[in-house]
Amino acid sequence: MSFDLNSLLPPHIRELKPYVSARDDYPGNDTPAVFLDANELPGPMQGMPSGINRYPGKEAVILKEQIAAVKELESDRVFLGNGSDEIIDLLMRCFARQGQDSIMIFPPAFGMYAVRAAANNLKVEEVPLDAGFTIDVRAALAATGPQTRLIFVCHPNNPSGNAQQVETIRRIAREFNGLVVVDEAYIDFCPEKSLLPVLRSHPNLVVLQTFSKAWGLAGARVGVAFASAAITGVLKKAGFPYNVGSPALKLAGEALNRHAEYRLNLIRLRRLRDELGSRLREMPLVEKVYPSDANFLLVKTRDAGLVYRHLAKLGVVVRNRDNEAGCKGCLRITVGSATENERLIRSWEILGKNPQKARRKAAPETAGEGRVQKTEPPRESIIRRKTSETDITLRLNLDGKGEANIQSGIGFLDHMLQQIARHGLIDLEVDARGDLEVDLHHSIEDIGICLGSALKQALGDKAGIERYGFELPMDDSRARVLIDLGGRNYLSWDASFSATEVGGIPASLFRHFFRSLAEAASCNLHVEASGDDDHHQIEAIFKAFARALRMAKSKNTSGIMPSTKGRL
Ligand SMILES: *Cc1c(COP(=O)(O)O)cnc(C)c1O
Q1: How far apart are CA 304 and CA 348, in angstroms?
Q2: C-alpha of residue 158 to centroid of ligand 1, in Å
Q3: Structural element, H or E, at residue 385
Q4: Which residues sit opposite 427 in a β-bridge?
Q5: Is the CB of 531 under 6 A from ligand 1?
């Protein structure tokens, strides 16, 4: 390994003296300062964010430190860009000589690399991926020459969706003397494959990540490069001083603090991706859906142009990748929400049928003409509860379709929570890690608390809800659950089980679960059940609870508070 950063730098970059910003000179002291150094206005216009009249300063430092803490790296290994696109361009400007040097890419690759290379007058060496979209390392290394300055590895790859083997990339980094730029824009969807943990072992490695994809901030334009302090130092001195605005920096920091929602989004998107993949396989003209480590799918069809135009006519926009290397017939499709994916499928299904009729069928339901559709705020909530015993993230949509994605670590409880979702017509996602090796008690209690808190939060001010629910006998066992979402908590429990354990859970914990739930949700619950089979009895209680909740949470059109007191 003979990587030498200095020898890689074009002389004008090596000798470049950075721009010194107005505030770089002033270290700060105890006396409150007045800043008359940067020709800013003394204050912002009315209603504008406070501090926006100043150039960004500490916001960038704070975000870098926050990112460094999350990624367990030193903050001088972090560089922020106006999207990772800016960093891609900056790397080329800093580490390659225009008109002489080249970059290497592995087509089909992200189009930005070639465009920025062209903009910087650099040649592009192409080493195509094989049929499975993996890198041929030997061909790649053999194709490098002294003029090859940067190798771009898109990992997971856009547009194919797959990640490379970590060892493949490490080998390239060991055996190549230029920079290896690993673009991890989609790594959040397969975090175990990130190169970040080995960053310290490879002085020529640059890892790019972004807030544009899994963090939901494409509009903010914040990208991140991780590299040695020597490399980030070059980027810093050659790049623009205030390249990311303070509102964007603040939003990125806030996003990082919403880790629970981020994690649930990833779980949900991976599930939606896999569901969408299986459905796409059944669509007309589809030949293959490639495996994906990202939030999109590459789909090989018999006629990409035809499918593309058909979908576009119906207002469903996907990306036609027909002309990319190794992508004949391919469309790249982002995984959307369940509703958006459904629209894609419904539109695709009718391909080849009467287009007029097809259009009508696939069009989204629109409100009656001239009528203003009143949109209710969504009744959703997210709870993250972390103690020394459990770490639980729970998301709930009271007006869902009964979809559940539950990972509590306790199979039987997963099954019961699915009953609540299904029969309550609630979308429920639970990701719980508890000290199950110690006892099930903590997990069950805490999941009960989280579910109760989520219900309470999602119900909001409760205007227009039915408030009460009840349920009648069901199945061979009988269970009756009465509920009042009025705001006081009370549990009456009349059920007993012949076994001490049901589904691997101590029978006494079921009562405990509903007590925790009722307390956290501030609701009245009256539970009665009887029957010979404990398993059925418990399942009946969960189902009856779900049905009672479904009645009580449902909205009538009155908007009236279901209490003579005028509030709940
Ligand atoms: C979307 C994407 C990016 C993100 O670019 P930003 O400028 O950070 O929005 C980077 N690389 C690849 C491969 C992408 O698909």
Answers
A1: 12
A2: 9
A3: strand 380-386
A4: 397
A5: no
- What is the spatial distance between Cα 109 and Cα 104, in angstroms, rounded to a whole number? 11
Q: Which pLDDT does position 246 carry in this prediction?
A: 97
Contact 307, 285 (CB under 8 A): yes
How far is 341 from 319, CA to CA, in rounded Å?
15
101-113 residue pLDDT tens: 999 999 999 999 9
Q: Is 158 in the pocket of ligand 1 (CB under 6 A)?
A: yes
Residue 120: how many CB atoms within 10 A of its CB? 18
- Give which of 227, 375, 364, 349 is closest to 283, Cα–Cα: 349
pTM value? 0.72
User: Are the C-beta atoms of residues 4 and 95 closer than 8 Å to each other?
Assistant: no
Distance of CA 158 to the CA centre of its chain: 17
Q: What is the DSSP string of 278-325?
A: HHHTTSTTEEEE---SSSEEEEEES-HHHHHHHHHHTT---EE-TTST
For the record, the structure tokens of 370 come out as: 């001239």
Compute and round to an integer the Cα radius of gyration of the chain.
28
Task: Locate 92 and state its tokens.
Answer: 């080329």
What are the DSSP E strand ranges found in 141-248? 148-154, 179-183, 205-210, 223-226
CA angle 118, 119, 122 (to 5 degrees): 45
Tens digit of pLDDT for each residue in 492-535?
999 988 888 888 898 889 999 999 999 999 999 999 988 888 88
Beta partners for residue 380, in sequence order? 397
Reply yes or no: is the peptide bond before residue 159 cis, omega within 30 of 0: yes
In one letter, which amino acid is 19? Y
Tell me how far apart the alpha carbons of residues 509 and 515 are, in angstroms, rounded to a whole number.
10
CA of 281 to the centre of ligand 1 (A): 27
CA of 393 to the centre of ligand 1 (A): 28
Helix (H/G/I), strand (E/B), else coil: 400: coil
333, β-bridge pairs: 297
Residue 243 Cβ contacting ligand 1 at under 6 Å: no
Report the distance separating Cα 157 and Cα 161, nearest Å: 5
Candidate of 67, 110, 293 to mutate for ligand 1, largest count of ligand atoms within 8 Å of Cβ: 110
Ligand 1 atom nearest 223 alpha carbon: 8
With a 6 A CB cut-off, is 185 part of the ligand 1 pocket? Answer: yes
The alpha carbon of 15 and the centre of ligand 1 are apart by a number of angstroms equal to 30
Q: Could you please report the per-residue DSSP string of 383-414?
A: EEEE-SSEEEEEEEETTS-S-EEEE-S-HHHH
Dihedral of CA atoms 47, 53, 57, 61 in degrees, nearest 10, equals 10
60-105 pLDDT, tens per residue?
999 999 999 999 999 999 999 999 999 999 999 999 999 999 999 9
Which SS3 state, helix, strand or coil, does residue 137 take?
Answer: helix
